[in-house]
Amino acid sequence: MAKATTRKAGARLDRLRARLDAAGLTALLLTSPGGRGYILGAEPGSAVLLTTEGTVAVTSGPYPGELGALLRAAGVTRGSVGTETGSREPALPLPGSPGLSLVDAGDLVFAELASHDPAELRAFAAAAELTAVGYTAVMDHLHVGMDVRELSGNVDRSVRRAGGLLGWYDPCGATGAAGSDLVTVRGHDPATARLTAADPVRYVLHPLCDGAVGYAAATAVLSRPDGPLRTAGDTCAAATAALLAALRPGDPLRDGLDAFARVAGEAPATCRIMAMHGGGASLPLACGSDLVAEPGMVLGVRTAAQVPEGGAVELAETVVVTGSGARAQARTPLRLVELH
Amino acid sequence: MDGNATPLPEAAGPAPTADLNGRAMPLVGFGTHPMRGDQATEAVLTALSVGYRLVDTATRYRNEAAVGAALAATEVPRADVFVTTKMPPDQVGRERLTLERSLAALGCGYVDLWLIHWPPGGYPGVASWREFLRAREEGLVRAVGVSNYPVELIDALHAETGVYPAVNQVQWGPGDYDPTFAEAMRRRGVLLSAHSPLRSTDLDHPVLMEIARRNKRSVRDVVLAWNLHHRVAVTVKSARRERMEQNLAAAGLALTATDVEAVDGLSAAAGAR
């Protein structure tokens, strides 16, 4: 059942409706936390329905029966409804609603969530600067035996001193919930919460600034890396560099994913490209996406290479698509950092 | 470093100096963090014009190119300017690349002092130190040192290479004063250099305010003069010309032995002795 039906104006809705019109869609169903949050902020709910006529409805679930009723209530009885399935399947009929069909609109949503006006770009640049501050606060003080809570405290103090907000939004999180910390750390001894020489330390930084989220991840090892770890680091660095080099305006964004896969080869490595409005809580770019990179897009790039004996090298960066390529914002090292 | 002051060239301003491997290192330097871009360039140009002859930057500051623009634009000859930069700890294994990038950004054929910015991973960073020494032998840097190093890590570098750092730049002010640490640096011939000399200092402390009042100077001046009295180099930063001049003039403030002892006593470490 619909919890609320409202009519909202605003630039975001106007832009999304323009995209719906251009795509020939009569409505859009946003199911990802990032997509919902983009329209309604932190409003809870399972789905948000947006029609070209102006209706915004929050539903408790994207179930066909409920969706059909919601569309009828909004006066929509014919046409295609975009969804965030990420599926490349052709249009599917909406059960119980003759004249209505469901089509994948993942690219449409991604394009909107990746696009920014100049003011927002400034906010993302400031957030990325905070990420760099947080990176320094971690990297300069890492040592074997360090308690990860001390590490988090360093980041917290440094970021706040630099004007950041106390809060986080994990771009890769499943819920998109905000929390009360700025850094996610992996690779410590779970029994003691302390760093070891053997385990690579991976940390993701995500400070908030003026409504924008900074985003970067780095991996460091507190010893001279052994063969498998070094190989994973080299693979991840080379494949990440290839991914970034492939993000060129006018070219499909998936070229970045393909470039990563080519360089990583058979190595156990993964990558994703995310729109930074809503972060990774929105759908990541689909492998088969046809979306073309455009100047002004802000993207989160996250890559990882597994170490066969355990652990991983994880890297991430926020990039802005420019007229000539992709410009890194936080400029943290996209390689395995050795500290010894 | 023998700790004896040597004169700078006449045009090099009023700051006292220390002898660093035969090169006069001004004891009052101009810090550039966190300025960047045009602001950093303008600030360095102003600092040079009012008499600063040491410019302190770092790879981490992301302003070496801006500092280099000022060095290119100033009428002060490169030979009269002491340029310090630092390699961040995440560049272990990439020391030469880092230095080459610093030199390119600064537009210099050499830097006067190159520091390891933080102990990498809390270790001494012996491998990096060997690369630093190699760069010094090749003339790309005049002197090499460290920053934020405890005594034991400095000793570890010496144990492995036989060479002590020329400088250890640490956060150092009345609130940080540790006579044992200062003495350890002096005995090893390591020049103590203070960054953020005011950060840990209670500028409203009655002892400092009374000394400032009596000398008709600011508490900031007193803190800087106190460092210089101890032969501690200080790096101060300000984008304002007036403040730059004021900081530089602090070198002319002579504190009495009683005043110095009173300021020494403000830190926890000194109080625990």
If you had to describe this structure to a student in words, what would you say it looks like?
The complex is a heterodimer of chains A (about 350) and B (about 270). Chain A is α+β, with helices and mostly antiparallel strands and about 350 residues long. Chain A is built from eight helices and 19 strands. Chain A has helices spanning about 10-25, 35-40, 65-75, 105-115, 120-140, 150-160, 225-245, 255-265, and strands at about 1-5, 25-30, 45-50, 55-60, 80-85, 90-95, 100-105, 170, 180, 185, 200-205, 210, 210-215, 215-220, 270-275, 300-305, 310-320, 325-330, 335-340. In chain A, the strands form five sheets. A seven-stranded mixed beta sheet of chain A has the order 1-4-3-2-5-7-6, with helices on both faces. In chain A, strands 10-11-14-19 form a four-stranded mixed beta sheet. In chain A, β3 (about 45-50) and β4 (about 55-60) form a beta hairpin. Chain B has a single domain (about 15-270), classed as NADP-dependent oxidoreductase domain (TIM Barrel), CATH 3.20.20.100. Helix content of chain B is about 40%, strand content about 20%. Chain B has eleven helices and ten strands. Chain B has helices at about 35-50, 65-75, 95-105, 125-135, 150-160, 180-185, 205-215, 220-230, 240-250, 255-265, 270; strands at about 15-20, 25, 30, 55, 80-85, 110-115, 140-145, 165-170, 190-195, 235. In chain B, strands 3-4-5-6-7-8-9-10 form an eight-stranded parallel β-barrel, surrounded by six helices. A two-stranded antiparallel sheet of chain B has the order 1-2. In chain B, β6 (about 110-115), α4 (about 125-135) and β7 form a beta-alpha-beta unit. In chain B, α1 packs across α2 (about 65-75), α1 packs across α9 and α7 (about 205-215) crosses α8 (about 220-230). Chain B is globular and about 50 Å long. The two termini of chain B are about 30 Å apart. The chains are: A alpha+beta (about 350), B alpha/beta (about 270). The interface of A and B includes residues 144, 146, 333 and 338 of A.
